[in-house]
Design brief:
The complex is a heterodimer of chains A (about 325) and B (about 625).
Chain A: H1 31-46, E1 53-57, E2 72-75, H2 81-91, E3 96-102, H3 103-109, H4 111-120, E4 124-130, H5 165-171, E5 176-181, H6 185-197, E6 202-207, H7 219-222, E7 228-231, E8 238-239, E9 245-249, E10 255-259, H8 275-281, E11 291-298, H9 304-318, H10 323-327, E12 332-335
Parallel strand pairs in A: 1-2, 1-3, 3-4, 4-6, 5-6, 7-11
Antiparallel strand pairs in A: 5-11, 8-9, 9-10
Helix pairs in contact in A: 1-6, 3-4
Chain B: E1 8-10, E2 13-21, H1 26-40, E3 43-49, E4 64-72, E5 85-88, H2 91-97, E6 106-110, H3 116-121, E7 138-142, H4 144-152, H5 160-164, H6 167-178, H7 184-193, H8 198-217, E8 224-226, E9 235-241, H9 242-257, E10 261-265, H10 272-279, E11 287-290, H11 294-306, E12 310-315, H12 317-333, E13 337-343, H13 360-365, E14 375-377, H14 383-398, E15 401-407, H15 408-412, E16 414-418, E17 467-469, H16 484-499, E18 510-511, E19 518-523, H17 527-539, E20 545-549, E21 551-553, H18 559-564, E22 568-573, H19 578-587, E23 592-595, H20 604-614
Helix pairs in contact in B: 1-6, 4-8, 6-8, 7-8, 9-10, 9-14, 11-12, 17-20
Classes of the chains: A alpha/beta (about 325), B alpha/beta (about 625).
Chain lengths: ~325, ~625
């Protein structure tokens, strides 16, 4: 994490300092409000001067986010935020760069940019507001909508098999993968904190309720808290009333839920292998009626931005760039 | 080398074409011959011509790779229309190039490759060396391969196959003798190139010397030729390709603006060599980012621009179309961004290694809504340097994306380049806004009175935190606005800003020594052939004026006046009339077109004929 201004006189900021004068224009009751409040509340903890924080978004309801954050920001084009943020982050390692995106933005039109930013481990924090629907275009199914979803564009039910964003991010070599719920502010803040502390790409899926076009999509964990499988590094994975249900790995590496006593998997978010995290990501509403919340994966890997800086430094140390010498390189001849 | 014992003939210019299989090293051979020629002080111009396939089947027609170099004792403008000498390394090379060779020209062939099998591959029913096909040419059949093997047989540790591959150096040696080229640099080059395998260096050197000696001793070549150095402007020169000059120009713009260069690129022919060149100069703080696709490449460049870098993306037509939405965003954001389109023949994948000028209307209009973008076009390989610096200046000063057009002909072609005085290249002031206004309220869309450019406040600047985006913005404040009158105003302001650049660029110059009635108006990479065609017409007593556009949007402020001052206007283009459409629409001038879209540069003779047909 970066140092404050350095002069030590920076006044302590509060959530209020991160609010802009713009009227927030999400639908009343939208889950985005809770996420915005959580983020504004968390920002002061970063202890980074707000002029060094940048929010970049694509297109969609979630993408309006930068307008409401009193930092630098760019509301860009559909799906491209990870690419734009990559250019900004690698050219300005002094900045804290955040991407706000949605399930259509990140996983449909911008899928390519997302997976490549993750595999490169660019130092950006990606917050994916997943509401399993296209909201801004008024209610078409999205790449995370369950198959069979009846929407305006799928009156007989959608045919698409959905993406599991956590599985996708892990498969894309992400070094940090986590999930949170819009209304669970304490846990969301905890995940944001871990994401901010992580060096490299951090991918956070946030279950976000769209009360207009896809209300109650996440009720199985949003309302029914006993279905939340909280992942705590170093703790056995247990959930349900009194922790009566546990999660363990089968011999084939897949995860299963069991009842009662028995050895639950002790969660290791820093496991060098991605397989256990992937196995847990397969525990979903559809497979076990419950799903993990928290940090799936948090491993150290060289950060793209640093690697590029290292090359620039090494090249400059070897030979300082001198324009005249560059142009006159190779065979030259003089005419008098 | 030994003294020339045979008669020497003086000639003023020569066009040599090396042609062989993709694996025969013709580009290297041509490049070395060019370097020898440059050092001798001839003016020169080169044109590599290679297939998109890396190695098409050996001996096949699609696998033929060529390199043409034109050199002279006076200043020249093109790589030449028709070779005076063709070196054909196999039957396929002969077949694909012979039609360009005028009767009487010199033809050197490797007779060892004219086997039954190779003749079939090249589609010859009979051996052209024997059936009269080559009647009227000055044919030299040389057993290049076997003499190369003979000359290198004593070198240890080299396979027959490796020795055979040195035959291009035998050919180079022979040509070096024939045209009195200096040989020291080539020997030094071979030692450098094969430093890790001295036996290969030795093989190539022996083949090179053997070729030279063969020329001296064989009776087949009765005379050799000398081309005196050209009287070029005094100064230090190097040979440079268009893409190399673009890369150097971008670095120069970075140095002169003090902004770090960020290149986002995705590999694409014929633009990739800019990425490769820039990746070698990280010591200038150049960040090269090979993105996952064309869209990410330009997106990352725009992100870097937002952060205060000189953001650049390089591509060719099929990649440029993918960048359109990001360029549109840059128009709305009013951030500097450079997009280099190295045009190639299309549509779709088209002919990737061949030049064309048909992306002009794409870069002018290929975006949704009213989204004006300045467009510049480079005219020669060396001028690519100036064009890159100028495009960067406009992008930075006016906070706008800028398209710079080049093409496959300029990209790979080369010419002697007078090294610029780096001190004399003007500084470019990025003019960041660093202080909050007295009332503390920063308005990102307040405009400069002269340029209409908006302030550029980069992240990290305290007190100037602001948000920008692709939604329409309110004048001054930059807040999201759906107000109808505001949208009309912003649309006009964006258009005015770009149109106003006309007052900040040089006027169009006309070359009209004789008071002509016909103006030839060209743009971009056709400069050389068109100027050469104009010269030929004048050489024959014809009166013709010539003007060449480096700025396509906006046009130089006197363009209308100039095109209106001539009775007739001819616009030669390697497209079906794109500039002509713009000129006619803008200035109501009934311009005629000369259009050939073959994936080839114009020949000077074709331009000459087109002009003479209008006189």
């Amino acid at each position: 994490m970066s140092e404050p201004n350095g002069n030590g006189t920076q006044p302590q900021l509060t959530a209020k300092d991160y609010k802009t004068d713009q009227e927030v224009r999400w639908c009343p009751g939208c889950g985005d409000y809770a996420i915005l409040a959580a983020l504004q509340g968390f920002m002061p903890e970063l202890e980074i001067p707000k002029e060094r924080i940048v929010f970049i978004s694509g297109i969609g309801c979630a993408a309006r986010f930068p307008y409401y954050m009193e930092t630098y920001g760019m509301h860009s084009i559909h799906g491209r935020a990870p690419a734009i943020a990559t250019g900004l982050s690698v050219s300005r390692p002094d900045l804290s760069v955040w991407v706000v995106t949605g399930d259509g933005d990140a996983l449909s039109i911008g899928g390519n940019h997302l997976i490549h930013a993750l595999r490169r481990n660019v130092n950006i924090k990606i917050l994916l507001f997943n509401n399993e629907i296209y909201g801004l275009t008024k209610g078409q199914y999205s790449p995370t909508s369950p198959r069979g979803k009846v929407t305006k564009s799928t009156p007989m039910g959608s045919l698409d098999w959905p993406f599991n964003p956590i599985s996708l991010a892990i498969g894309a070599e992400a070094s940090f993968v986590a999930r949170a719920i819009d209304t669970d502010r304490a846990q969301l803040t905890e995940v944001l904190r871990a994401a901010a502390a992580h060096k490299g790409s951090a991918f956070v899926e946030i279950f976000q309720n769209c009360n207009i076009f896809n209300d109650n999509a996440f009720d199985f964990v949003r309302e029914d808290k006993e279905n939340r499988i909280y992942l705590q590094h170093g703790e056995p994975v247990r959930f349900g009333p009194g922790g009566e249900r546990g999660v363990r790995l089968r011999g084939d590496g897949s995860a299963e839920v069991f009842e009662g006593d028995g050895d639950a998997l002790v969660w290791d978010a820093h496991h060098p292998e991605a397989s256990p995290a992937f196995a847990l990501s397969r525990l979903t509403r559809d497979t076990v009626g419950a799903t993990p919340i928290g940090v799936f994966r948090d491993v150290e890997r060289p950060v793209y931005d640093d690697l590029m800086d290292d090359q620039l430094r090494a090249a400059s140390e070897q030979k300082e760039g001198e324009l005249g010498a560059l142009l006159a390189g190779g065979d030259t001849w003089t005419i008098s | 080398m030994a003294k020339q014992a045979k008669p020497v003939e003086q000639v003023d210019s020569v066009i040599v074409r090396f042609a062989g299989d993709s694996g025969d090293g013709m580009q290297l051979t041509g490049g070395r011959f060019t370097s020898e020629t440059a050092v001798l002080g001839n003016d020169l111009s080169t044109l590599p011509d290679f297939p998109a396939e890396i190695r098409a089947p050996a001996g096949s027609l699609p696998g033929v790779s060529g390199f043409q170099v034109h050199f002279a004792d006076h200043d020249i403008l093109t790589p030449g229309d028709a070779p005076s000498v063709l070196v054909a390394m196999n039957p396929a090379a002969l077949k694909t190039n012979l039609h360009d060779l005028p009767r009487g020209a010199t033809l050197i062939v490797d007779q060892d490759t004219f086997t039954e099998r190779n003749l079939v591959k090249a589609g010859y029913d009979a051996n052209p060396l024997e059936d009269g096909t080559l009647d009227g040419y000055d044919v030299h059949t040389v057993p290049l391969t076997s003499m190369t093997l003979e000359a290198t047989k004593d070198v240890e540790g080299v396979t027959k196959r490796e020795a055979e591959r040195a035959k291009n150096m035998f050919a180079l040696g022979l040509m070096s003798w024939l045209y009195h080229r200096p040989t020291e640099q080539t020997v030094a080059f071979l030692e450098r190139k094969f430093a890790k395998r001295p036996e290969i260096a030795e093989t190539n050197k022996r083949a090179f010397h053997a070729g030279y000696a063969f020329g001296e001793t064989t009776e087949d070549f009765a005379v050799s030729y000398e081309v005196k150095p050209a009287k070029l402007r005094p100064g230090t020169y190097r040979n440079i390709t268009g893409n190399q000059a673009l890369a150097f120009g971008l670095i120069a713009a970075s140095v002169k603006s003090g902004l770090p260069l960020f290149l986002g690129a995705y590999p694409i022919t014929p633009a990739s060599s800019i990425l490769e060149e820039l990746a070698r100069h990280k010591n200038f703080g150049v960040r090269t980012f090979q993105a996952e696709d064309e869209i990410a490449a330009v997106g990352a460049a725009l992100g870097a621009s937002f952060g205060g870098s000189l953001g650049v993306s390089t591509s060719a037509g099929p990649g440029v179309v993918l960048k359109s939405e990001t360029v549109g965003l840059a128009v709305a954001l009013e951030l500097p961004l450079l997009i280099l389109d190295i045009q190639r023949a299309g549509p779709s994948t088209g002919m990737p290694t061949k030049p064309e000028q048909a992306d002009l209307l794409l870069v002018m209009f290929g975006r949704n809504s009213e989204s004006p973008v300045p467009v510049l076009a480079a005219s020669t390989p060396g001028q690519c340097f100036d064009a890159a610096v100028e495009a960067a200046r406009i992008a930075l000063k006016y906070r706008t994306p800028v398209y710079l057009l080049s093409d496959a002909y300029l990209a790979n072609g080369s010419e002697p380049w007078l090294l610029p005085d780096v001190e004399a290249i003007p500084d470019i002031d990025a003019g960041f806004t660093t202080e909050a206004p007295p009332d503390g309220d920063f308005h990102p869309y307040v405009r400069d009175d002269d340029t209409l450019a908006r302030p550029w406040a980069i992240p990290g600047t305290p007190g100037l935190e602001h948000r920008i985006g692709g939604l329409e913005k309110q004048d001054l404040s930059g807040n999201v606005s759906y107000d109808p009158e505001n949208h009309d105003l912003m649309t006009r302001l964006r258009a005015q800003k770009i149109a106003g650049i006309a007052s900040d660029i040089p006027e169009l110059e006309v070359d009209d020594p004789d008071g002509a009635e016909l103006l030839v108006l060209s743009w971009g990479g056709t400069y050389g052939p068109v100027a050469a065609g104009v010269r030929r017409v004048r050489g024959g007593g014809g009166k013709v004026a010539h003007a060449h556009l480096h700025y396509l949007n906006p046009f130089p402020r006197n363009t209308g006046e100039i095109v209106g001052a001539y009775d007739k206007v001819l616009i030669p283009e390697i497209n079906l009339g794109q500039l002509r459409k713009l000129i006619r629409a803008e200035f109501l001038v009934d311009a005629a077109g000369f259009n050939l879209v073959r994936g080839l540069p114009f020949r000077a003779s074709e331009v000459q004929e087109a002009i003479e047909a209008m006189l």
